[in-house]
Design brief:
With 227 residues, the protein is of the alpha/beta class. It contains 12 helices and 5 strands.
């Protein structure tokens, strides 16, 4: 079995390269409006989702025009990929997105949900394939989020395996991956006190984290990997 150190090193090395390029920017440059759907857990829903998605939308609006950017948060706190599959039609497809962000890894890893990595992979692959069937030009962007600490971490003992699966599926499907894990790892290495400045409860990044850590990575990934 791979050591945690090897897994983290592998995550870092994979995250330094992109599996695909973003189509969103080229469409915006050509004046094509983009409706972005953010689909996932509490890390990208409600106030936590707005904390990073609002600055992303604002930045893109400044570059290409506010009228071209619209986003909707379609996920739900406490949910995982099986819920994502069940609610995909109403929560995502019916909203006619041009871009879909997906992250369910952190809750697929929650031991009480009894969702093996293989099942989480099948769920993720289904969501990707179904969105592509709806519209082959709809861009799909996967996200690997932060690690939890404390009790939230003990309830997700194999989180790295789920995040590694996201990286693998991104490569397999040829779609963009935004990997936040290395950024969070650098903060955690400074100590728990520093980490909790951004993740007070041990799992949910706060507004400052959304603005200063998550949003900049999303913006950088989209802009530097645009076609």
């Amino acid at each position: 079995m791979k050591s945690k150190l090897v897994l983290l090193l592998t995550a870092f090395l994979i995250s330094t390269s992109s599996f695909a390029q973003s189509q969103m920017v080229s469409k915006l440059e050509n004046g094509v409006s983009q409706h972005i759907i953010v689909y996932g857990t509490s890390l990208s829903s409600g106030g936590n989702g707005h904390a990073w998605m609002q600055p992303v939308a604002a930045h893109l609006g400044k570059l290409y025009g506010d009228s071209l950017i619209r986003y909707s948060l379609a996920g739900k706190g406490g949910m995982w990929s099986s819920w994502g599959v069940k609610n995909l039609e109403d929560s995502v497809i019916a909203k006619k997105p041009d871009v879909v962000f997906i992250e369910f890894g952190i809750n697929d890893a929650f031991i009480d949900y009894h969702t093996p990595v293989a099942v989480a992979r099948l769920n993720l692959q289904y969501m990707i394939d179904r969105i592509r069937l709806y519209d082959a030009s709809c861009e799909i962007i996967l996200q690997v989020m932060n690690m939890p600490i404390g009790k939230s971490s003990t309830l997700r003992p194999h989180l790295e395996d789920y995040y590694a699966m996201y990286r693998s599926v991104a490569a397999e499907k040829g779609i963009m991956l935004i990997d936040h894990y290395p950024n969070w790892l650098k903060i955690l290495e400074k100590g728990e006190e520093d980490f909790r400045k951004y993740v007070p409860d041990g799992i949910h990044p706060n507004k400052v984290a959304g603005e200063q850590i998550i949003a900049p990575q999303v913006i950088q990934s989209i802009l530097t990997n645009s076609q």
